[in-house]
Write a structure and sequence with these properties.
Elements lengths: L2 H21 L8 E4 L3 H12 L7 E5 L2 E2 L11 H6 L8 H5 L4 E4 L8 H5 L6 E4 L9 H7 L5
Parallel strand pairs: 1-2, 1-4, 4-5
Antiparallel strand pairs: 2-3
Length: 148
């Protein structure tokens, strides 16, 4: 077991499943945005799908934006190709619109509070960048009345 990959994936799946209970949604219906496409993110993606999330409802973003089917640089990256989806969205900002879940596996301050505002009414946000999260609790409180 690799702690950064599998340990983080197990905890993330547990948090998402518990969040589903709180917001009254099924994991299979969630629109999920993952920011970051490293080893931990790809392991989380795999476990979320095994846990009932639909791959077509998960948008993974890297430093170049949305990992979409047909993106030219995916030809040589089988790992990112595996998580690519058919989507017209190209940026993290676009991916956040109406998203139920944001999984931050990247860098601090990557989630703009205005983008968080466009998410679903009661989003599950796991900002896991360390030591600075993708969005601060203070910024999130400014734009969302309810969140997990």
């Amino acid at each position: 077991m690799h702690d950064d990959q599998h340990g983080t994936a197990v905890i993330t799946l547990a948090a998402v499943l518990n969040g589903c209970k709180i917001i009254g949604k099924d994991i299979g219906t969630l629109k999920i945005v993952m920011n970051g496409a490293g080893a931990a993110s790809l392991s989380i993606h795999n476990l979320l799908c095994l846990g009932g999330a639909k791959q077509e409802n998960i948008i993974v973003c890297d430093t170049k934006g949305v990992i979409y089917t047909g993106r030219p640089d995916l030809v040589d990256n089988k790992y990112k190709f595996k998580v690519s989806v058919d989507s017209a969205k190209r940026t993290l900002e676009e991916a956040c619109v109406e998203a139920d879940v944001f999984l931050g596996l990247s860098v601090g301050n990557a989630l703009n509070k205005e983008w968080a505002k466009t998410m679903s009414e009661y989003p599950i946000i796991l900002a896991m960048a360390n030591p600075i999260p993708e969005i601060s609790l203070e910024d999130l409180k400014e734009v969302k009345e309810k969140y997990i």
